[in-house]
Every structure is written in structure tokens, then in C-alpha cells.
Design goal:
Domain Outer membrane protein beta-barrel: 348-754
Shape: elongated
Radius of gyration: 29 Å
Structural class: mainly beta
Distance between the termini: 47 Å
Organism: Spirosoma foliorum
Family: Belongs to the TonB-dependent receptor family.
Number of domains: 2
CATH architecture of the largest domain: Beta Barrel
GO molecular function: siderophore uptake transmembrane transporter activity
Largest sheet: 32 strands, mixed
CATH topology of the largest domain: Maltoporin, Chain A
Subcellular location: Cell outer membrane
Strand content: over 45%
């Protein structure tokens, strides 16, 4: 017995055997594969009545069992999902906050009320194995080279600047976060750390929508969605606009070294108070021609501005301790951006369960600009230097993909997957610098030596094959190979020679798992990953908004290769407590790291180079349990050793570190609920330094009303910390530096949420979209 839409088995359905008069003789329930058998029947005429919750009752026409043909195979019997309007939907239970699947851990963010009114940064901070620092930078087991997907597909929103883009996605729209540490061959090989898949809430059948409004001292947003879905056609629109304030103060003391001796000292005090504004919208359509053929189309667009304006006091003492430079500086830096993305997909399912063919296409266009104006003044307030810069960048991208899944059995325990993919990226960046001279501050002239045009093309052709085998002893083997061919070309208008790189990567993956019992399992996995340098890594444009701290891309970068190995064990007790232990090892050769050098005048330059080996060994612990009917607790931790070594720079750095997090929720009478979250990290080690410990905690209270269709949630972040302080110490043979940072993160927010419209029950099956997960986000 199969679902008529998904062609998946319908287990435990009721099958009644009828006589020729329509009376019930006996009954059976279907197995896990949807099969059933009646034996010992006398010759004669019979009928069947098929029933199951959520499906329309079906009566099969009379069939005859003859003495000369005592066995009849009825083939696949289809049940049609039932569409029934509901006056009220009552949720009797909720998923656990942390769930384990065969190749990933899932954080069910929709069940965590402390996320209300926040952003995706708040959500990822609580996901297992992830670390999100005070400024929103995301790491998976210490690596920021990640593939970050939105509903299983890439998003230009997440590709350019992940920490900023996450602030544009409201937490209220996120259903769950999947953390995949050992991706199979089906995923693009890009992203040495692993894969993060952000799943947003899906449209239910019927005409319905939601509205969320948040007001707070650091965060304001308004957003929602509305759509309708019928048996064959669905249309959904969603949008959001938000503004988030970021305030910080930092003090840095950096000593320049020459032959190991101090050659100068730079002191800087910087203060910043910026408001980041952004918006996005999405229009999605789906149409099912029949139960086997579906097409989907979507248009997404987003934009905004990420200012990084600041005020700076600067003082430099030479080797003799004499102040040779002292000034203040005002920087107005803006980064406007925008994107439009089109997705088209066709999905063909077959009568055999889990057999599927998908043909997908995607086109996106992104502009991503940076401009700044820097004005320097002496201590008397007179202008002494001015500089302006513009960097205009655009990135059109075209992708085609074909995937096919073929099961060898109706249970899906043995299957093969294979596919092909082609990506074409054409990136252009034009940057120009205008600055003044010391004797003509008001006159800005074009600086040809620091201006250029950079064109960058990237082509990726890939093919993969993956095999899954499972036996009755509950062993499962999933292995695969992925071959990727990459061509990268860069051209400059003048001065800098062009480059062309071509390389092939054969990426293996293997996952071996065993279900020890109904409550215990273990898994062993190994895979390789690559990280290609992207446009912002290669572009030699120099950001000199602070002339004492320069940063630029490096067109000489080459891809890095990472080896990932993991062994994990999971246990679920009789009372529902859950424990997962994962021991892992990651090694990255030819690692791309930020390298800083400082000259004797106190000027530093930071660029990325392939100069190190990065190794990390650690143990992840994740647990969840329900203390009583109303009190749920989950938490986790990581204990690890990390090591950097660079022969080229003659630098080594290592350390033992750990971090912990705890999340508690309590349900009160009268539709009130409380939740608390906290985390602590001892910091992290870098190639040229180390950050000190940091922490984050939040409290939330919610009241539901209007038959639980609306709610008010009051949340506070770090209420007893103002400001939060964190230090950074770094060094090399050319400098020693100490930075004391203050982040003003104490905030309060109030969120109103409302769900409206009619909801209808029915099976959900969405069309697939392109997954350019090779475009890593940092």
C-alpha cells in the first residue's frame, strides 16, 4: 500500500477483507513496507477496504479467487491523502530541541522561545557543535570555512559575509538548523569545516500567514508571510525588514619589532556605533501536474547596508619613545549590497518509493560595494589628510544540476545516487582611490597606483556517485566519490599580471553505522573537503580606511584540502534522556590563514596566505532530558586541542580549550512559559595569537493568547553585563599586540507574533532547488 502522492509505503494501515455482500470477514494491518497477506481463503469473490488516519477510505472492487489459481498479486494499492479543514490545530507534544539523524544533528529552533524577536545569529549560537562569537562570526569545530545553506540550497545572502547576513534572517522564520560534519558525496566538496543547513518554516495547506513585530533597544524588525496551497498549486510570499545596532569600544597597543627589539609603539582607541539595516523578500510557486511530476519556481531578493563607521585616536612613538604621530580620525564606511535570484526545478518521482529524478537551474546577480571617507585631524582640530575610496563589485552566477536516486528495494535500505553539476561565476571589481597631499588637504587626486579593475571567472564541473547498503543486522554503509574540476582565471587592467589555475579533486566519503539496539547506535565516518579562495580572498584591493591597519586580498591563493574523521556514539534511555558523544580529528594542509606583518612605522598589512597546517582533535558532548512534564533541559560541550604550524613563517601555536552551553525551558499554567540559555567558552587559538574567554546568556518569558494563535515574548540578553570585555593577544617576529575590546550587548526586546488563516491537513511535498553549497560563507 502506497501514498498516491509521495509513492512512499503506508505502514500500519487497516485492511479489511470483505465478502461479496460487502460484510467484513477479517482484517490485517500493513507492515512497515506497506505490505499485507491474507492466507487460507476459500475460492470465491472478495473485496478490500483500506483505511488509515489522514487518508481517504478506499474500497477495492471485487476480485475472484479460483481453485485453479489460489494466489492473486494485487500490486501497488494507492491511498489518497485526505484534505480536511480544521477549526483548530492542537499540538499535543513537541520535538526534542536536539535530534540525531543518520548523518547530522538537528536543532529544532522553533521550539526555543528565547529565539523570539532575535536573528539567525541567536539561533546558530544554540545549535550543537557551532560557536558564534560576540560579533556574530560562526565556526564549526573551530573552522569558519563552512557551507551554509538555506532550505538545502545556496543563498547569495549567506555567501558574501555570513556574520552580517545572519542578522537579516529573523529567528521567528527558522524551523530548525542541521549540522552536518561528514557530508556525503552528494554535497559540493567546498567547505572544510562541514555543512550548516538552515530550514525555514514551511507553508501549510490552505490560506494562512503570520506576522512578527519586534521592538527593542538594539533590535527592531517587522516581517511575515502569506500564502495558499491547494492540491496542485501553491504560492507563498515572505518578507522582512530589520535594523540592528552595534556598539563597541576597543584599545590596542602594538609594538613593532626589528631584530627582536622594539622599534616603535602604536596606541589606538576606536569607538563605533552603527545601525545595520536590511530587508529581503521571497516569492515561491509550486505546481504538481500529477502525482509524479512537479515543477517549482521562486524569485528572491534582498539588500541593505552594513556600515562600519568609527572614530579613532592614534598615537605612535618611535624607537626612542618620542611621539612622532598623533591625530584623530573620522571614518564613514558604507557597504551597500543587493541580490536577485531565480530558481527553477523539475522533479519526477516514480512508482517505486524513493526513486526520483531532479533537473534544476539557478541564476543570481549580486552587487556588493564598499565605499569610505577618511578624515584626519590634528589635536587642535585642523584637517591634515583626507582619503576616499570606492570598490564596486558585481557577481552574476549560473548553475545547472541533475540528480537521480535509484532504490534497489521498496524499503530504500539499498540505493544508489548519482548526478552532475555545472557552475559559472563571472565577477568584476573596480576600485579607485582619491587622496590629498599634506600641503593641499582639500584637494583630492586620483591615485593610479592603488586603483585597478579586477575580473575573475570561476567554472566548476562536478559529478558524483553514492551507494547506500543496509542489512537486517542493522549495519549501514554509505560511501561515495565526487570528482570536481575547477578553473579560476583573474585579469587586471594594469600592473598586476593575470593568473589561471586549473585543478581536479577526487573527494571520497564513507559512513559506517550500526544500530546496537533500539536505544544505542554508533557511527564512523571519513571524508575530504576543499576550500577554494573566493573573490574577496583574491581581490588585491587595499582597504586603507585606517592607514595604520591595511587589509587586502591575495591573487596568489590556492585551494586548501581538509581531512575529516569522526566516531560517535548515541544513547537514549527508557525515560527519554538523550546523549551523543563524538570524537573527531580534522587536519587541513596548505591552510589559508590571515597573516599580519608590521613595519617600523607601525603600519600593519593583513592578507591571507597558504602558509600553515591546521590540526584539531576534540570531543563533542550533547545531551537532552525532560526532568518532568513541564521542565526540559538540553546542553552540550566541546573539549579540544588545536595546533597551527607554519614552516614558512617559523610559527607554531597550540592550546587546550573547552566550551559549554545549557538551555532550560519551563511550561507554566495559563499559557505562560519561561526559558533560559547560557554558554561559556575559554576562547580560541589563532595562527598568530589567542582570544580570551567569552560568554552569552539570555532569558525569555512568553504569554500565548487568542487560542494560541498569538503571543507576546519578552527577552533580555546579557542583562547583568555592561559592557562585555574580551582581549586579543597576537605576535610574530615583527610585532607584539594587545587589544582590549568592549562590546555593548545588553539588550531587551518585545515580540508580537500572530498566525492567521485557515489550515488544512494533507501530505506535503516540495520541489527541489539548486544547492550551490560550494560557495562558502565566512
Amino acid at each position: 500500500m502506497l501514498d498516491s502522492v509521495t509513492r512512499q509505503p503506508v505502514p500500519f494501515a487497516t485492511v479489511a477483507l470483505l465478502n461479496s455482500s460487502g460484510n467484513v470477514l477479517t482484517g490485517k494491518t500493513t507492515s512497515e513496507t506497506g505490505a499485507f497477506v491474507f492466507s487460507g481463503l476459500n475460492p470465491g469473490s472478495y473485496g478490500l477496504q483500506l483505511t488509515f488516519v489522514g487518508y481517504q477510505t478506499r474500497t477495492v472492487l471485487t476480485f475472484t479467487l479460483a481453485a485453479q489459481k489460489p494466489v492473486i498479486q494485487l500490486g501497488n494499492l494507492l491511498l489518497r491523502p485526505e484534505s480536511r479543514q480544521l477549526n483548530e490545530v492542537v499540538v499535543a507534544g513537541q520535538k526534542a530541541l536536539i535530534e540525531e539523524k543518520s548523518d547530522r544533528l538537528v536543532y529544532n529552533a522553533a521550539n526555543d522561545l528565547t529565539n523570539k524577536g532575535g536573528t539567525a545569529v541567536d539561533v546558530l549560537r544554540k545549535a550543537p557543535m557551532l560557536t558564534v562569537d560576540v560579533t556574530g562570526n560562526v565556526q564549526l569545530r573551530g573552522s569558519s570555512n563552512l557551507k551554509v545553506l538555506l532550505n538545502g540550497r545556496p543563498s547569495g545572502l549567506l555567501a558574501r559575509n555570513l556574520s552580517e547576513a545572519l542578522k537579516m534572517i529573523p529567528a521567528n522564520t527558522i524551523q530548525s538548523v542541521e549540522v552536518i560534519t561528514s557530508p556525503s558525496a552528494r554535497y559540493d566538496a567546498e567547505g572544510s569545516g562541514g555543512v550548516i543547513n538552515i530550514i525555514t518554516k514551511k507553508q501549510l495547506k490552505g490560506s494562512n500567514g503570520n506576522l512578527d513585530v519586534t521592538a527593542g533597544n538594539y533590535m527592531q524588525s517587522i516581517g511575515g508571510s502569506y500564502g495558499f496551497k491547494r492540491e496542485k498549486f501553491g504560492l507563498t510570499f515572505s518578507g522582512n525588514a530589520d535594523a540592528e545596532r552595534e556598539k563597541s569600544v576597543s584599545e590596542m597597543t602594538r609594538v613593532s619589532l626589528l631584530d627582536g627589539q622594539p622599534a616603535g609603539e602604536l596606541f589606538q582607541r576606536r569607538s563605533a556605533n552603527n545601525v545595520h539595516r536590511g530587508w529581503f523578500g521571497d516569492l515561491s510557486m509550486e505546481y504538481a501536474f500529477d502525482t509524479l511530476n512537479r515543477v517549482n519556481f521562486s524569485i528572491s531578493t534582498w539588500g541593505g547596508a552594513w556600515p562600519n563607521s568609527n572614530s579613532l585616536y592614534n598615537r605612535f612613538r618611535n624607537a626612542e619613545g618620542v611621539v612622532s604621530q598623533e591625530y584623530t580620525q573620522e571614518v564613514d564606511q558604507q557597504s551597500p549590497f543587493g541580490n536577485v535570484e531565480f530558481n527553477l526545478g523539475y522533479t519526477r518521482t516514480f512508482k517505486k518509493p524513493k526513486q526520483e529524478l531532479a533537473v534544476l537551474a539557478q541564476y543570481s546577480y549580486t552587487f556588493d560595494n564598499t565605499r569610505y571617507t577618511s578624515d584626519q585631524y590634528n589635536l587642535g582640530g585642523a584637517p591634515i589628510y583626507r582619503e576616499t575610496s570606492q570598490n564596486k563589485s558585481q557577481n552574476p552566477q549560473l548553475t545547472f544540476q541533475l540528480d537521480y536516486t535509484h532504490p534497489f528495494s521498496t524499503s530504500g535500505r539499498q540505493m544508489v545516487e548519482f548526478g552532475v553539476k555545472a557552475i559559472r561565476r563571472d565577477v568584476g571589481s573596480t576600485y579607485a582611490i582619491y587622496n590629498s597631499s599634506l600641503d593641499a588637504v582639500d584637494l583630492l587626486t586620483y591615485n593610479a597606483g592603488r586603483s585597478n579593475t579586477f575580473d575573475y571567472d570561476q567554472q566548476v564541473l562536478a559529478t558524483y556517485a553514492s551507494l547506500k547498503l543496509a542489512n537486517q543486522t542493522k549495519w549501514t554503509l554509505q560511501s561515495g566519490l565526487r570528482l570536481e574540476n575547477t578553473v579560476m582565471e583573474g585579469r587586471f587592467a594594469d600592473s598586476i599580471p593575470p593568473f589561471r589555475i586549473r585543478f581536479n579533486n577526487l573527494i571520497p566519503s564513507i559512513i559506517l553505522s550500526k544500530q546496537l539496539s533500539d536505544r544505542q547506535s554508533f557511527k564512523v565516518s571519513y571524508t575530504q573537503r576543499i576550500s577554494r579562495p573566493m573573490i574577496w580572498d583574491l581581490n588585491p584591493y587595499i582597504n586603507a580606511s585606517d592607514p595604520k591597519n591595511l587589509s587586502a586580498g591575495n591573487p596568489q591563493l590556492r585551494p586548501e584540502l581538509t581531512h575529516l574523521a569522526e566516531i560517535s556514539y548515541s544513547l537514549t534511555t527508557k525515560n527519554g534522556a538523550y546523549l551523543n558523544l563524538a570524537l573527531y580529528r580534522r587536519q587541513t594542509d596548505n591552510s589559508i590563514e590571515e597573516v599580519r606583518t608590521v613595519d617600523t612605522s607601525g603600519v600593519s598589512q593583513t592578507i591571507k596566505q597558504n602558509v600553515a597546517r591546521n590540526q584539531r582533535t576534540g570531543l563533542n558532548v550533547n545531551a537532552a532530558w525532560q526532568l518532568n512534564r513541564n521542565w526540559k533541559v538540553n546542553g552540550g560541550g566541546e573539549f579540544y586541542h588545536t595546533q597551527f604550524s607554519s614552516t614558512a613563517l617559523q610559527v607554531q601555536n597550540s592550546g587546550w580549550l573547552w566550551q559549554l552551553n545549557l538551555n532550560m525551558a519551563y511550561q507554566l499554567p495559563q499559557n505562560y512559559s519561561l526559558q533560559a540559555y547560557g554558554m561559556y567558552s575559554t576562547g580560541w587559538v589563532l595562527l598568530q595569537g589567542k582570544n580570551s574567554a567569552w560568554y552569552h546568556y539570555s532569558l525569555a518569558a512568553r504569554k500565548e493568547f487568542w487560542d494560541k494563535k498569538a503571543s507576546l515574548t519578552l527577552g533580555v540578553n546579557n542583562p547583568f553585563t555592561y559592557p562585555f570585555r574580551q582581549n586579543n593577544d597576537s605576535q610574530s617576529n615583527s610585532f607584539q599586540s594587545h587589544t582590549a575590546n568592549q562590546y555593548f550587548t545588553r539588550s531587551v526586546k518585545l515580540t508580537f507574533s500572530w498566525q492567521f488563516g485557515q489550515i488544512r491537513a494533507g501530505s506535503e511535498q516540495s520541489g527541489r532547488k539548486i544547492t550551490n553549497d560550494d560557495a562558502k560563507a565566512k
